[in-house]
Amino acid sequence: MLTERHLENYADVLWWGLSTARRQRFRKNDVVQIRFHAGAVRLMEILYRKLMEKGLNPVPRLSPTPDMERSFYRLSGNRQLVFVPHGEERFVGNLSGSIFLNAPESLTHLRDADPRRIGRATMAHKPFRTVLERREAQGAYSWTLCLLPTAELARQAGLGLQAYSRQVVKACFLDAAAPVSAWKAIHRRAGEIKRWLDAMPVARFRVESGGTDLELALGAKRRWAGISGRNIPSFELFVSPDWRGTRGVFYADQPSFRNGNIVRQVRLEFRNGRLSRADAREGGDFLKKQLALDPGASRVGEFSLTDRRFSRIDRFMANTLFDENYGGAHGNCHIALGSSYSNTYAGDPRRLTTPLKDKLGFNDSALHWDFVNTEKKRVTAILADGSRVVVYENGEFCR
């Protein structure tokens, strides 16, 4: 439902995102992977052309269809479940960038698959993510992703396909005369807010809304990140807190689709940094099995806030990329259970070793699952001297 003009603009914005997120400049003959669903093939073709014109080596990779994924989890033996193609480690170790064009045909096709088998397959690919995290810390790799409207996404979001498409166009500024310039302006404004937050001697944050009363310890040597080009769209500012200082309750009023499953109305309760209880109105069994994936899966890896002045997303979109950037009337807050982000370390990310991560309370896991709250809320920073500053209220940063 996107026009050729929209797709050309999308490709330009994705290149801006990928090149902005990478600390080193791209050079000719760098390798960029383009993962895409079949419904995104036209955008892939346009993006492929633009990357070729820049002297890069784009490598397109078609993502499995829903039928292929069902067959994989239904038919795979133990060795097939954790199989990784020969040469994958070498390929990943030489990637300079990766772009994912997400256009899902189904969101619930794995609802009958065993969550433990999904978890084992996820764990088999964790070493490659570690390699990419290390390359990203060195400035040699970056990634970004986007969403294309599909009939399934529109249906799950309760929208017509045209209305859903308009939300995508609006959110990504694809209808603007100069979409990249619009993103650059938001990037600059976000930088001002991040510097304001980083200058505060914060000990912990308290999040209060109708269903949430949560405290998170910021931790030492942290900095805020976000609106860096890594997601299109992206309006959130986030930090990876010290997981050991999490306590209280977080309620996710937004549904969440993950690995072909859906969970609704999730309530998470924390004590001494660890998840003590997890409930969901729908999908509770899948939720609990995913959160038992490894020791870090039940700990907080990210704390995020979205300013409604940035985001033009005002409908549930049945996709985390959009829903975690929801603007609406009250903005949104989300936490992620699982892995933390190294780019929120305030020092040289190349020196953020595993022992140092453990010492500073950066979480490690094969999981990273975002849970979104869009209720009216107040976020208070509790400073090192015990004083309090409201940093976010009425859907906006107080800056």
Descriptive notes:
The longest helix has 20 residues. With 399 residues, the protein is of the alpha+beta class. It starts with a helix and ends with a strand. The strands form 3 sheets. Strands 5, 6, 8, 9, 10, 11, 15, 16 and 17 form a 9-stranded antiparallel beta sheet that branches. A 4-stranded parallel beta sheet has the order 2-1-3-4, sandwiched between helices. It has a 4-stranded antiparallel beta sheet with strand order 7-12-13-14, with no helix packed on it. It folds into 2 domains: 175 residues, Thermophilic metalloprotease-like, CATH 3.40.1830.10; 216 residues, no CATH class. Helix 2 links the parallel strand 1 and strand 2. It contains 13 helices and 17 strands.
Short description:
The protein is of the alpha+beta class.
Beta fraction: 25-35%
H and E string: HEHEHHHEHHEHHHEEEEEEEHEHEHEEEE
Helix content estimate: 25-40%
Cα radius of gyration in angstroms: 20 Å
Q: Would you spell out the secondary-structure blueprint of this structure?
A:
Layout: H1 4-21, E1 31-36, H2 41-53, E2 57-62, H3 66-75, H4 78-81, H5 88-93, E3 97-102, H6 115-124, H7 126-137, E4 142-147, H8 151-157, H9 161-171, H10 179-198, E5 202-209, E6 213-217, E7 236-239, E8 242-252, E9 256-258, E10 261-271, E11 274-282, H11 284-290, E12 300-306, H12 320-323, E13 332-338, H13 354-360, E14 368-373, E15 377-383, E16 388-393, E17 396-397
Parallel strand pairs: 1-2, 1-3, 3-4
Antiparallel strand pairs: 5-6, 5-15, 6-8, 7-12, 8-10, 9-10, 10-11, 12-13, 13-14, 15-16, 16-17
Helix pairs in contact: 1-2, 8-9
